[in-house]
Write a structure and sequence with these properties.
heterodimer; A: alpha+beta; six-stranded mixed sheet; five-stranded antiparallel sheet; 26 helices; 13% strand
């Protein structure tokens, strides 16, 4: 039963005042008496119970703080910390309160006197107040009276009432204590409802405090998260392309693994419900349920790391004590060694660039490329594609100086071999070798060398002329040795030609003819003849130099474009360094090229000096690092050189604007001998081409006729004879005897005879005849050899052999006759076409005669050898015409082929250098000529390509568009 | 004031001014004239003053006129006062930049798509872009005291600048005296290396320049001159400079309103007036050429010149056209006097384009057609009954030799280059029988002797100036050398100057009659180099340049 206690009197605001000892004695009375007795009793009964409640509340706050902080996020950790502080503050306050309450008279009066009687309590408080006032001085009244009054009031209080009130208060606190204790207990045990069950997890408190005390997201105390009794499974699997097995390790170990490996950690969680992660402190890989009560996490290894298993609580991770330290073993790019690199070579001094390389990789090679870089251009050529298993690859490659890429370049070419490994993830996995740098010849150097040869001849002729003029004036008898002088001049010229490979045969033929003419002139004619030759050579030199100057200028135009491009890039901050180097490189080439160009006589001097002065302008801007203007000036030069006309391109020698009294001038063209020669040589080339085409048409006609000939009439007999031949040679030995013996020859005869039989069956009579002749020849050889050998039991006797030979001869005669009949039929079939070819052959023959006449005209510089060859060709063409007209296709074709050889011998080509022509042809070189003409020997490159095509053609079956050329080439080889 | 209104006011003033000029001619000394001139001056001044007082924005016409008159400082000032941007203003700014020689700046302004969408903008942009490429990184040499600004494509041409500067100064003085107008300083000259660049800087089509043999253009407020090194045989560059400067003066005087015949006629008239009469000047006979062209139906016609003489179809047509306009202008000046010419130029300035008839009438009382008739009549009267040479002969003192002579020339050159001087001279000698008065051949005949140190032979081969009918720079230089050896320094200097006027970068000219002796294995000349810094530099430059063998 609860009794409503009277409300205690209100405690004065200033509750606790330190009393002087005398006053204290008055208030509290003697030990065990008065107010102290009452107050002590009241505290004895209430204070323990209140203290317990306070403690349990403190515990609840402290434990609750751990649970709240376990959320991990900063706000919850803040709340948790606050709760902990609250618990501490509460405890402190209680202790302080309890200590001070012991001497608090006002509180004691309220809680004792006022416990039963509120009015008494208030009186007590007033009396206490009076006591304090009187203690300060007499003005407030008598202290003795006040003391007496206070004592009387205290005496009115009953101990029983105080005890009753105290017990009542204590029982109220007891009501609070037990629920609070239960709550604190639950918190301490970490009671939680997880899934469908109630769990007791006291570790949550530890986790909570761990999280609360975490710094930098890491809890201070390590905890085990995966079951240690069954050690976690840690497997490191290398990347697939390495084809290596996995590796098991354990936490606490230090290992080194290939980059790209995958680390898999599997284990049983110690405490379920936690978010477990595999972490390096920065990145987390969460563990997931593997379906077998375990959890698993995967970690791709990209860089060296230290891995922990941890539980994540919000932003905080509580790590396990053991870490797995993994160092990454990077997959190095392949190492490539290029023999001789680094080195710098001059392209014009090389016959070929031999590149021998060795590529090594730690895991496997996938591809090897040859990389050519020049300025802003790059070309990659794949040398090898590998399966990715091979760790070592040796190889070689030869690069020809006339390589199409190299020929187009003017800047130094940096050659590297680059290898790629089998690592598929990274883009740039190329290992590069040291470089071989090829320095291309200066632009124009070839042309200058050619011009110098011509100028050398010109100077020699000038000297010869000067010598004659001088000799004529001073001592005419000296002219006696003119023939020797002229011959010496011719020999010097030939030597000069031998030293320069860049002269075309046409050029050589023209000059040689011009000079050799001098050796045949009389005394009276010599000066004039020398002057004519001198003017011819001079004109040729000037004309060629002008052509060369135009060609070189256009090449330099490309260099200027390269400079403009580099200058443009150099204006961008990101690419300035490399671009500047590129610009400077091109500037060097332009300078060198300009100096060469300047040596190419009039036009070359004009354009060369212009190039150098413009380069000066460009470099003026470049030296100020003003790449904008350097680009503009480079573009101007590029445009100018792409139009390589003289600077003052007018026909007039001066402007018409101003000035009086214009000067006279001489014509530029002082000789047209070279033009006449070129015209003749072009005609000669055309004649040879037309004639080759005509041969093709005759061959086609014969082939078509062959295909229409009916050989069925011979089929039956041919089959019978084939059988007879096989039977005939049955007695001869098989292949296998020692070479160069009679037996080996007999075996060969048997094989040939077998081939003859087979061809007869197929009605391939031409081949049958060929095989038959070979068989007969071998039989004769057998007979000859057996005479010098001792008796050979494996051979038939000589008589038998002679009979075999005789019978085979008979079969061969039949085959030849049949073949002849077929050819006659074939010729008859092709007659109409052959007749048309005969007419064309006649026209071509007339053309040849006409060219011969023109070549002998005065002022022409055609060599006697060319004219003789042309004459012979003309004769053969006439004979061929007659044969074709008579329907003898084969004979006509043979004569045509013979004539063609002479025509090609007569054709020297023109004097033109033809670089531009070659470049154009190169651009369309993919299309092989359809007519199968034999390219002329002077076109070295074309000839080389032709040889390649021939070799390819020889390896293939008959026919195809190159067949006639192949045949003629092969014939040429045989001769 | 709107542009249209400003234009109307100007036209009205201009008409009034024209009337006043006529009155002036009638009563030159009277008070009425003075009064009228004062009134006219006020009439012109009022709109400008009003404008200035009111402080309004300058009009585009004002800006354009200032640029055309090459008053670039004033044009820049006017542009800076314009507060409302417009496409037309941007075009004027670009034009001004080109007049300043700042092609980069012009190209930057004209890069705006709106401007490029206009025909004028696109055209000017094309010019500015090509010009910027052609001039980037060029060497700029400025002579501030003399008010000269040179831009050199080829820095080696720097040695020519003192020579060009002399001509510019003398020619401008003469033009100012004759035409009553001077040019604002600096005078801008672009010295270019080839026709390609000349075309890029001036805007003259390259093909046209190549066809007619254009060597210089006066446009965009400056002279663009082809370097003498571009022409293998040189050209009369000094008279060309004077010629082109005359164009600039006339453009400024008339605000570019003069018709082409007047421009070219005056330029031809003025091109030799800056210097004393020189040998071979008399060979140019424009009256005869015009008359023969007229008589043979080959005349071009004053009003048929098109946009430029350089655009005519052939060098011969250009030469005839030059002769016609020269003859006509000389005739007109002869009849009306130099003062009338100055008045005509001033009148054209106010009258605007296509008003030459009005100008001619107001100054001289006749229209162009009338003057054309009078001029033709005068030519007919002048040459009545005379047998004149053919046009080919009249147009050129020099000839292009036939093949036989050309072969001799070439053989002589080859022998000379190999050091066979006398042989080379002897080889050319037979050709002198027919062409003995030709400087080109005479020089070749003489130089062989000179190369081998035969001074007597050299003198004999050279002959005298009076023996020549056609000039040659080499002959002048070698003759000058001979004269100096004889102690005739003044005559020698005169001859050297004549040579420099044609081909300064030829070694024989630049080194005043000396060269590296072929007969001595290309040894340098034994005597001293020319006196004076500029002559010495020219010799060195010529020696570096003239290396074709």
């Amino acid at each position: 039963m609860s009794v409503a206690a009277p409300s205690p009197p209100e405690k004065p605001k200033k509750v606790h005042v330190e009393q002087p000892p005398a006053l204290a004695r008055v208030i509290w009375g003697n030990e065990g008496q008065g107010l102290s007795k009452l107050w002590n009793r009241e505290r004895e009964l209430v204070e323990p119970m209140v203290g317990n409640v306070v403690k349990v509340v403190m515990a609840a706050f402290a434990l609750g703080a751990a649970h709240v902080a376990r959320g991990g996020v900063i706000s919850l950790r803040g709340v948790g910390a606050s709760m902990l502080i609250v618990a501490l503050v509460l405890g402190f306050t209680w202790v302080r309160f309890a200590r001070r309450a012991r001497t608090d008279a006002a509180l004691a009066l309220v809680r004792t006197l006022g416990a039963k009687d509120r009015e008494l309590g208030e009186k007590g408080l007033r009396a206490l107040s009076l006591l304090h006032e009187t203690a300060k001085g007499e003005a407030s009244g008598s202290s003795e009276l006040a003391q007496l009054h206070f004592e009387k009031l205290v005496a009115r209080a009953s101990l029983v009432d105080v005890e009753e009130s105290a017990r009542r208060l204590g029982s109220r606190y007891r009501l609070l204590f037990w629920p609070l204790l239960l709550l604190a207990g639950a918190l301490a045990l970490g009671v939680n409802w997880s899934g469908k069950s109630l769990r007791f997890e006291p570790s949550r408190v530890l986790e909570g405090y761990n999280v609360l005390l975490a710094r930098g997201g890491r809890a201070p105390v390590a905890m085990a998260w995966l079951e240690r009794r069954v050690a976690p499974e840690v497997v490191i699997k290398p990347p697939l392309y390495l084809r290596e097995p996995g590796n098991s390790v354990a936490f606490g170990e230090h290992t080194r693994e290939p980059k790209g490996s995958e680390i898999t950690v599997r284990g049983l969680p110690v405490r379920p419900g936690r978010t477990l992660v595999l972490t390096d402190g920065v990145r987390d890989e969460e563990f997931v349920d593997d379906g077998a009560d375990a959890v698993v996490a995967h970690w791709p290894l990209e860089q060296s790391t230290t891995l922990y298993v941890a539980a994540r609580f919000g932003d905080v991770r509580i790590y396990e004590p053991d870490a797995l330290v993994v160092d990454v073993q990077p997959d190095t790019v392949p190492k490539v060694e290029l023999q001789g690199a680094p080195q710098t070579l001059h392209l014009n001094e090389l016959e070929s660039v031999e590149l021998r390389y060795r590529a090594v990789d730690d895991h496997g090679l996938r591809q090897i490329d040859l990389v050519l870089r020049s300025g802003g251009k790059e070309q990659r050529r794949t040398l090898a594609r590998l399966d990715g298993h091979a760790k070592l690859e040796n190889g070689g490659h030869a690069l020809a100086p006339n390589d199409s890429f190299l020929k187009r370049l003017f800047l130094p070419v940096v050659i590297t071999i680059e290898a790629k490994d089998n690592e598929p993830l990274s883009a740039d996995r190329w290992g590069k070798s040291a470089a071989i740098t090829l320095i291309p010849p200066a632009l124009g150097a070839v042309q200058v060398a050619r011009t110098e040869v011509l100028l050398g001849v010109r100077d020699a002729l000038t000297e010869f002329l000067a010598w004659q003029l001088h000799a004529k004036k001073s001592d005419p008898r000296a002219l006696v040795s003119q023939k020797e002088r002229a011959s010496a001049l011719l020999a010097d010229t030939a030597r000069a030609f031998q030293q320069n490979a860049n002269l075309t045969p046409g050029l050589e033929a023209f000059i040689t003819t011009e000079v050799s003419k001098l050796t045949k002139l009389s005394e009276a004619e010599l000066i004039l003849g020398t002057e004519t030759a001198l003017l011819s050579v001079d004109m040729l030199a000037r004309r060629l130099a002008a052509d060369d100057a135009r060609f070189v200028a256009k090449q330099l135009s490309e260099v200027a474009k390269e400079m403009a491009s580099a200058a443009h890039q150099a204006q961008a901050p990101e690419g300035s360094g490399r671009s500047v180097a590129r610009f400077d490189g091109a500037a060097g080439v332009l300078k060198e090229g300009g100096q060469q160009l300047r040596q190419l006589l009039e036009l070359g001097h004009d354009l060369g000096t212009l190039t150098l002065s413009e380069l000066d302008r460009i470099l003026r801007a470049r030296n100020r690092e003003d790449f904008f203007h350097a680009e503009l000036a480079s573009r101007h030069l590029a445009l100018r050189l792409s139009r390589p006309n003289p600077s003052f391109g007018s026909a007039a020698s001066g402007g018409s604007e101003a000035g009086q009294g214009s000067q006279s001038s001489a014509q530029g063209d002082t000789s047209d001998a070279d033009q006449k020669f070129d015209e003749w040589a072009s005609q000669m080339e055309r004649l040879a081409q037309e004639h080759a085409r005509e041969i093709d048409s005759v061959e086609r006609a014969l082939k078509d006729a062959d295909s229409r000939v009916d050989a069925e009439a011979f089929k039956k007999e041919a089959a019978e004879r084939a059988q007879a031949i096989r039977e005939l040679v049955e007695g001869l030995p098989e292949i296998g005897a020692a070479p160069e013996t009679a037996e080996a020859a007999a075996a060969l005869a048997r094989e040939y005879a077998g081939a003859m039989a087979q061809n007869l069956e197929r009605l391939s009579l031409e081949n049958a005849v060929g095989s038959g002749r070979d068989a007969l020849s071998s039989l004769k050889d057998t007979d000859r050899k057996r005479r010098v050998e001792s008796y050979n039991y494996s051979l038939p006797d000589p008589e038998e052999l002679r009979q075999t030979e005789g019978k085979l001869q008979e079969h061969l005669a039949w085959a030849e006759k049949a073949l002849e009949k077929l050819k006659e039929q074939s010729s008859a079939q092709a007659r109409a076409q052959l007749s048309a070819s005969a007419n064309r052959e006649k026209e071509l023959g007339s053309w040849a005669e006409q060219l011969g006449r023109r070549g002998r005209e005065k002022g022409q510089s055609v060599s006697e050898q060319s004219l003789q060859s042309l004459g012979k060709a003309g004769e053969l063409m006439r004979e061929a015409e007659q044969a074709l007209e008579a329907g003898r296709g084969e004979a006509g074709r043979d004569l045509q082929l013979e004539a063609q050889k002479y025509l090609e011998r007569a054709s020297t080509g023109t004097t033109q250098a033809g670089e531009e022509e070659e470049e154009e042809k190169e651009a369309s070189s993919n299309a092989a000529p359809a007519n199968g003409d034999v390219p002329k020997a002077e076109r070295n490159r074309q000839a080389a390509e032709f040889r390649k095509r021939v070799l390819k053609g020889l390896g293939q079956a008959n026919g195809g568009k190159l067949a006639p050329a192949v045949k003629r080439y092969a014939e040429g080889l045989l001769q | 004031m709107s542009q249209r209104r400003a234009f109307q006011v100007k036209r009205r003033n201009a008409r009034f001014f024209g009337t006043g000029q006529k009155l002036c001619a009638q009563a030159r000394k009277g008070l009425i004239t003075r009064f009228m001139l004062t009134v006219l001056a006020l009439c012109i001044a009022v709109p400008v003053t009003t404008h200035a007082v009111l402080g309004g924005q300058p009009t585009l016409t004002q800006i354009s006129n200032a640029i055309t008159e090459m008053d670039v400082t004033r044009a820049a000032e006017l542009i800076s006062k314009v507060k409302t941007p417009s496409l037309d203003l941007a075009l004027e700014r670009a034009r001004l930049a080109i007049y300043f020689g700042d092609c980069d700046g012009a190209a930057a302004i004209l890069r705006a798509p709106d401007l490029q969408a206009t025909k004028a903008g696109a055209s000017l942009n094309n010019l500015a872009t090509r010009c910027a490429m052609a001039t980037a990184g060029s060497l700029i040499v400025e002579d501030k005291p003399k008010g000269l600004w040179f831009r050199l494509q080829d820095a080696d041409d720097k040695v020519l600048l003192p020579y060009i500067a002399d001509v510019v100064s003398k020619a401008l003085t003469q033009h100012a005296r004759d035409l009553g107008t001077d040019l604002p300083r600096p005078i801008r000259v672009d010295l270019v290396r080839d026709l390609f660049t000349l075309s890029a800087i001036s805007g003259l089509p390259l093909q046209a320049a190549e066809t007619t043999g254009t060597v210089a253009v006066a446009r965009w407020g400056r002279v663009t001159l082809l370097s003498p090194r571009a022409a293998p045989e040189g050209y009369p560059w000094q008279d060309t400079v004077a010629h082109e400067l005359s164009h600039l003066v006339v453009s400024r005087a008339t605000r570019d309103n003069s018709p082409l015949w007047l421009q070219e006629g005056l330029a031809k008239h003025q091109e030799t007036r800056w210097r004393p009469v020189e040998p071979f000047d008399e060979q140019y006979q424009p009256d005869k050429i015009a008359y023969v062209a007229m008589a043979t139906g080959q005349q071009v016609g004053l009003d048929q010149l098109g946009s430029s003489i350089a655009m005519l179809p052939s060098p011969q047509a250009a030469s005839i056209a030059f002769a016609e306009v020269t003859s006509f202008v000389r005739f007109w000046i002869g009849v009306n006097g130099a003062t009338a010419l100055r008045l005509l130029l001033q009148d054209l300035r106010g009258l605007g384009p296509d008003a030459v008839d009005a100008g001619l009438k107001s100054v001289s009382g006749y229209s162009l057609a009338n003057w054309d008739k009078r001029w033709r009549h005068s030519l007919r009267e002048k040459f009545k009954g005379q047998t004149l040479p053919s046009l080919d002969v009249l147009l050129g003192g020099g000839v292009v030799f036939d093949k036989k002579v050309s072969q001799s020339v070439r053989l002589s050159d080859l022998l000379f280059e190999r050091g066979h001087g006398v042989a080379s001279s002897e080889r050319i000698f037979p050709e002198l029988e027919q062409h003995g008065a030709d400087g080109f051949l005479r020089f070749r005949y003489a130089r062989g002797f000179a190369d081998e140190g035969d001074q007597a032979g050299t003198d004999r081969a050279l002959g005298e100036l009076s023996d020549l009918k056609t000039p040659h720079f080499g002959w002048f230089a070698l003759k000058g050398y001979s004269e100096r050896l004889r102690g005739k320094v003044e005559a020698a200097e005169h001859l050297f100057a004549l040579a420099v006027a044609r081909h300064p970068l030829s070694e024989v000219v630049g080194c005043q009659g000396e060269w590296q002796r072929r007969s001595q294995g290309y040894a340098a000349a034994t005597s001293q180099r020319p006196d004076g810094e500029r002559a010495r530099l020219l010799c060195e430059a010529a020696r570096r340049w003239d290396t074709i063998r």
